[in-house]
Amino acid sequence: MSGSFDRVESTLMDRLNPVTRFLGTLVFAAACFCAETPAALGALLAVGFAFAAAAGMLRKSAFAALSVAAFSALLAVVQLLTTPEGALLVGLPWGYIGVGSVRAAASTVARLVAASVPLYVALSATDPNDLSNAAVKVLRVPYRYAFTFSSAIRFVPVFMDDMRGIVEAQTARGVRFDAAGPIRRLRLMAPLAVPLLVSSVRKTNSAAIAAEVRGFNLRTRESGYKSYPLDAGDAVAAAVVLALLAVAIAW
């Protein structure tokens, strides 16, 4: 795949239409946020990792899940401190932390992790070009909107690489990002947004010019040479994720 997203060869994923992969993961994410009980969230988390294992991406998905868990832990702490629910555990000047607060914070982490695993697998195993072309041919989405979405996915790792390069350049000049505290690190990182913004605007402008030169405005639904048919496997996958959503709502 173009950009830093490596193409993952997976028999399971290759059998599904790109639209089915993406919409299926969105429905699965909706099921994760509709689930209320710990048992339902645990079952959805297990299903997500089983899907990653079937796609041959269990190890990478586990690493991605840890990253999402670290980020969602910050949200969980905020929720823990600002949502007094249930029996009192710890008193605070502005409220308290209760049993319900802990349960809500843990549910937030579980929901985000469970929703992120299938989405990570689907995006890693799907070429953005296939996703945009399939959306145009199957869902009849106007090509300019599908191209915008796929370009956003493609540019995320590019911008991350640019940011990494800027941080390394500043580190070589003596800036110590690793030795600073959280507040000071934030103050050091904030000015780096300026060169990243300049670089992103330059890349976006170059991509827009290249698209115009290649006849972007002339492209229609019939312009793509590759077809993306829906078959029985897509129907089964759609039925499974819809059943998971129904169970998550009812459980």
How would you sum up this structure, described in words?
This protein has 10 helices and 2 strands, in the order ααααββαααααα. It is mainly alpha-helical and 251 residues long. The chain has a two-stranded antiparallel ribbon. A hairpin with a 2-residue loop joins β1 and β2 (95-98). The protein is flat and about 65 Å long.
Q: Strand fraction band?
A: under 5%
Rg, Å, rounded = 22 Å
Termini separation: 39 Å
One letter per element, helices H and strands E, the order comes to HHHHEEHHHHHH
Strand arrangement in the largest pleated sheet = 1-2
Assign an overall shape. Answer: flat
How would you classify the helix and strand content by structural class?
A: mainly alpha
Q: What is the makeup of the main sheet?
A: 2 strands, antiparallel
